[in-house]
Amino acid sequence: MFLWDWLHSLLYYFGFNRNAKIVIVGLDNAGKSTLLNMLKTGRAAQFPPTGQARSEEMTIGGLTIQAYDLGGHAIMRRVWLDYFPAVDGIVYMVDAADRERLQESKTELTRILDDPEIPPIPILILGNKTDKGTAIGKEELIMSFDLQRRLYKETGYNETENGRPPLRECQLFMCSLLKKQGYGDAFRWLAKATKK
Fold first, then answer.
1. Stated pTM of the model
2. Do the Cβ atoms of 195 and 15 come closer than 8 Å?
3. Contact yes or no for 191/14 (Cβ under 8 A)
4. Domains identified in the chain and CATH numbers
5. Cα-flanking dihedrals φ and ψ of residue 19, to 5°?
6. Which residues in the chain land under pLDDT 50?
């Protein structure tokens, strides 16, 4: 129940007393369903690939969260954009241990970050599976995904090449859902970013 208590105190701290919708996207096998289950039950579990969009609703500390796991195989990626206009935040999961698919994951994330049709909602990037020996570190992921100018800093945005800020706030956190590590600060950031 640690996760429930933690989320309750977090939401209380940020003064949430409303509804929020988030989508969880990323390539298949990145950990999206596991994250959704962790948020709902506080337990890690493995799931078969998500064949269709799935949602869970939870009420924690006065905040009703509607979270959507949209699946990550190529066919499901086509429907991601349909959900983005109606949500308060996007969680993009990266399997940091699957080096063979990092370029594919980068392509999908870049498509989201650069799409002017997506509202300027915050994007939380989770580099998952840091418990595996093949996982890349945070700095390597930043460089591989060309995120140097996109990540939000406490002092504001880094300027892009054209001198303007990125379209939306985004931040990267490394985590291991299996070991229940690293996502606490990530969701604190997302809670603060969606409140703005």
1. 0.81
2. yes
3. yes
4. 2-195 (3.40.50.300)
5. -100, 145
6. 1-2, 14, 16-17, 61, 155-157
Question: Residue 11: what residue type?
Answer: L
The tens digit of pLDDT for each residue in 1-45 reads 445 555 555 555 545 446 778 888 999 889 888 887 777 777 766
Name the residue type at position 144: S
Residue 25 to residue 32: CA distance in whole angstroms: 7
Task: Look at residue 81 in the predicted model and tell me its pLDDT.
Answer: 80
> What is the C-alpha to C-alpha distance for residues 40 and 34, in angstroms, rounded to an integer?
10
Nearest alpha carbon to residue 69 among 114, 22, 10, 104: 22
The alpha carbon torsion through 122, 168, 182, 22 (nearest 10 deg) reads 20
Largest CA distance in the chain: 47
**Residue 180 burial class via C-beta count within 10 angstroms: exposed 0-12, middle 13-18, buried 19 and up:** middle
DSSP string, 8-29: HHHHHHTT--SEEEEEEEESTT
Instruction: Check if the beta carbon of residue 23 is closer than 8 Å to that of residue 30.
Output: no
Secondary structure of 70-119 in HEC code, one letter for each residue: CCCCHHHHCCHHHHHHHCCEEEEEEECCCHHHHHHHHHHHHHHHHCCCCC
